[in-house]
Amino acid sequence: MRWDWQVVGWAALALVLIAAETLAPGAFLLWLGLAAAAVFVVVLLFDVPLLAQVALFVVLSFISIQVYRRWFRDRARASDKPTLNRRADALVGQVVPLERAIVQGRGRVQIADAYWDVAGPDLAAGTPVRVVATDGMTLTVEAVG
Amino acid sequence: MTLGSLLAAVLLFAGVIVLFKAVRMVPQGYEWTVEAFGKYTHTLTPGLHFLVPIYQGVGRKINMMEQVLEVPSQDVITKDNAVVKVDGIVFFQVLDAAKAAYEVAQLEVAILNLVMTNIRTAIGSMDLDESLSKRDEINTKVLLAVDAATHPWGLKVNRIELKDIQPPRDLVDSMARQMKAEREKRANILEAEGFRQAAILKAEGEKQSVILEAEGSKEAAFRAAEARERLAQAEAKATELVSTAIAQGNVQAINYFVAQKYIEAFKALAEAPNQKFVMMPMESAGVIGSLAGIAELAKESMAGQAAKNPPPLPGRGA
After folding, report:
1. How far apart are CA A41 and CA B112, in angstroms?
2. Which of its termini does chain A have fewer beta carbons within 10 Å around, N or C?
């Protein structure tokens, strides 16, 4: 057990990083703070050279972030709006009339104010179709019923 | 400061920088592209991501929210050579971050230019009146053209709206004058129509009243004629009665009536208050003659009576 400027320094760094996380939330200054806290404990108990302390801190930072990614993110609460900012994906399941007939697999529908290109079996204009999938720009549709 | 502590400081600095580059947090509403030594590999969705330090790096940060662009006001010439000022707004959204990042340079400038040229094309094919009244049609036309053209850039153009179509000042003035004249014309026509209708109604009324009046006098004439006919019938009947009476009796009987009338007329003459002088007709002698006829009638009838049953003795008759 020793209390010199190195030990106090690591403790201070850990506290500052954890505090900074609350000011600028990014869920990753916190992991640097935790790494600093771990180094503080190691330095407090063992006599480690400064270079090793810093190396330990850097390695622990990467490890803590990876552990967070592997461990905690899998358990993170899923978004209750999974199609946020994914306009096309949000349309899957909708039934709309064809605005222009599907000829050779390509047609057009109008949803809200926008016109979307659709792909699917050849159908006459006005036929109600259901959006079943999307590749981001084009909606894949099938005839209803 | 020892060499060891200097090395430690450098290691700390480098480690933190690499860490900051490797751990990236993408905020909701954005997508970041990842480049491995400058080549696009994949796109980061919102959330925390870990990149392989040095090898991978973030390329472009693309806004995936719907965005609004103002289309600056521009002069457009219509089919009938009127110069109008047109401005508008575009709503678009990036659907494919990678395409928006690498398929087009200066995305917003590209969209704006596309929209402006398409507005010019759409309005250039229309008359001024048409372009003012068919704004929806222009919007749809431009939207379809721009939407199709921006597909390769991973964009969805949701809406294009012309905010203002402004014809030149003098044209607006004459349009207002035209509208006013049109309304005045309608007012005048309506007024004239009203007068015409009133005159017709009045004339019709007069016609009706004249017809009714004529009908009335016709009816009256018919009735008067009928009355005269009846009178004549009555007179004929009277004459017939008299003549049968005469035929059965004596011709002298007629003289009785004539004398009676004569004397009545004389009575009236004599009674007239301002009549002091009476002219006797030339045939006075005739009248007197008729009186003589009466006397003769009386004599005859008396004689007849006396012959049938002798007159009662004076003083014994009833």
Report:
1. 59
2. N
**Residue of B1, B3, B6, B12 to mutate, testing the A interface (most A Cβ within 10 Å of its Cβ):** B12
Pairing of strands A114-119, A139-143: parallel
Cβ of A58 and B11 within 8 Å?
A: yes
What are the CA-CA distances from residue A113 to residues A50, B90, B154, B207, B287 (Å)?
Answer: 64, 12, 18, 68, 126
pLDDT in tens, B129-141: 899 899 999 999 9
Q: What is the ipTM of this complex?
A: 0.78
Phi first, then psi: what are they for B113, rounded to 5°? -65, -40
Average pLDDT, chain B: 86
Inter-residue contact B91 to B68 (CB < 8 Å): yes
Q: What 3-state DSSP class applies to B24? A: strand
**Is pLDDT at B301 greater than 80 in this prediction?**
no
Whole-angstrom Cα distance, residue B249 to residue B257? 14
Distance from CA of B146 to the nearest CA of A (A): 11
Q: Where are the domains of chain B?
A: 12-60, 67-167, 168-238, 250-272+285-304
User: What is the domain class of B67-167 according to CATH?
Assistant: alpha beta
By three-state DSSP, how is residue B188 classified? helix
Helices A50-67 and A5-23, axial angle in degrees (round to 10): 30
All residues at 6 or more sequence positions from B106 whose CB lies less than 8 Å from its CB, including other chains: none
The C-alpha atoms of residue B277 and residue B190 are separated, in whole angstroms, by 80
Tokens (6 digits) for B133: 């009244």
- Helix boundaries (H) for B78-134: 97-102, 107-124, 128-133
Torsion over CA: B280, B281, B285, B288 (sign)? negative
Of B65, B96, B147, the CB nearest to A115: B147
- Of residues B4, B23, B154, nearest to A28 (C-beta): B23
* DSSP-assigned states of every residue in B291-304: HHHHHHHHHHHHHH
Residue B13 amino acid letter: F
For B84-106, give one letter per residue: b (16+ CB within 10 A) or e. bebbbebbbbbbbbbbbbebbee
Q: How many residues would you count in chain B?
A: 318
Residue B62 near residue B30 (C-beta atoms within 8 A): yes
Q: Answer whether A101 touches B (CB < 8 Å).
A: no
HSE of A70 in the Cβ direction (CA atoms, 13 Å)?
6
Q: Which of B4, B25, B96 sits opposite A51 (nearest CB)?
A: B4
So what's the architecture of A87-143 in CATH?
Answer: Beta Barrel (2.40)
Is A8 in CB contact (< 8 Å) with chain B?
no
What are the pLDDT digits (tens) for B136-156?
Answer: 999 999 999 999 999 999 999
The answer to whether B186 touches B178, Cβ cutoff 8 Å, is: no
